[in-house]
Amino acid sequence: MEYRSGRVGAGMRVIGLLAGLAAAGSLVTGCASEQPKPMAQPSLEQVKGNADRGFDKLKQEEREHKPAGM
């Protein structure tokens, strides 16, 4: 029997390289094939409530920045 001194043959390197590339390729294609989920659309009441809060906040800021003489 032949004893090897811990060296890896060229064939084993090629097989290891191909296995690594195959694993990386399957990981990339597996993640890329997932379909993105659509965003949930807010209801009309939520949109109105957000607009009302924003408008009230804007009015409050306007009151705070006005000079007292106006």
TrEMBL record:
User: Which domain of life does the protein's organism represent?
Assistant: Bacteria
Give the span(s) annotated as Disordered: 33-70
**Composition-biased stretches (Basic and acidic residues):** 50-70
Mind telling me what this protein is named? Lipoprotein
Q: Which organism is it from?
A: Nitrospira defluvii
**Lineage, top ranks:** Bacteria, Pseudomonadati, Nitrospirota, Nitrospiria, Nitrospirales
